[in-house]
Amino acid sequence: MSRKLGQVFLKNQKISQKIVKELEIKKGEIVVEIGPGTGFLTQELILSNEKIIAIEKDPKLIGYLKEKFANNKNLILIEGDIREILKEEKIQEIIQSKDYNKGYKIVGNIPYYLTSYLLRLLMNLQSKQNKPKLVVLMVQKEVAERIVAQPPKMNLLAVLTQFYFQPKIIQIVKKGNFSPPPKVDSAIIKLIPLKNQYISNPKLEKKFIQLVKAGFSQPRKTLLNNLKTIIPKEKIERYLLKNNLQLTIRPAALSLDDWLKIFQELVMN
User: Fold this and answer.
1) Does 241 score more than 70 pLDDT?
2) CATH number for the domain including 208?
3) Whose CB among 28, 30, 68, 132 lies 3.0–4.6 Å from 102's, allowing a Cys bridge?
4) Residues 189 and 206 in one domain
């Protein structure tokens, strides 16, 4: 166990079974597990009889897992940092090298410090041809709540995640279900990939992200003040008045649909 890697290990079998159920594993699919740790969730995944690729950074845990699952032919253990594997799109090579054409799903109990960065890497995969069909993660409860937020509590993470995925909190998991117990509760979150005209167009995708980041650059300031750095102030004012929105509206009050409309009218036109 490596506390420096921020690892806490699930110890409730019913929760592991719930995670596997939410993955909806179909025949011929590959499941990529991020950070199997001591193999508690891996053990449930193996019961699906489909190919499981478990990626673990800690070399000591890799040795332990190899010994524990020595007789399981449908488990492939890879020693590596998931951040590098996703960032460099090595995940594509790993999946394709296994000669499976039914697609793959991603699952994992994610260290808290890694969550936001990992989500960004998963978002980047959505514009690729070989992207995950479904993602189920165990994350900090607070982060899960931020991801599924709606107005008036929208935030940058929520808008961007909801642009790429339909997120849903499946279950809150109390801290006592982990060893060693963390200081806060967790949540199982399910991310269903979405399709839209912007994700499939890299230029539009990049422009939309720039718009939202500018809009949330100073969340406590008004949308007008934040966006005027990239869009003429008069143009923003006309849009807000035309759509019956107050000039003092803040970014947290806008839904994803609102952001898409702003993008359509103020950036695309």
Assistant:
1) yes
2) 1.10.8.100
3) 28
4) no
Q: 150-195, pLDDT tens digit by residue?
A: 999 999 999 999 999 999 999 999 999 998 888 999 999 999 999 8
> Which pTM value belongs to this model?
0.92
Same domain, 231 and 157: no
Domain boundary (141, 164, 193) is at 193
pLDDT per position as a tens digit, 3-32? 444 567 898 999 999 999 999 999 989 999
Answer with the one of 193, 224, 247 that is the final residue of a domain.
193
Same domain for 131 and 239, yes or no, is no
Are 113 and 148 within one domain?
yes
Give the pLDDT confidence score for residue 254 in this predicted structure.
97
Domain span at residue 95 reads 3-193
Looking only at the bridges linking them, the beta strands covering 178-179 and 9-10 are antiparallel
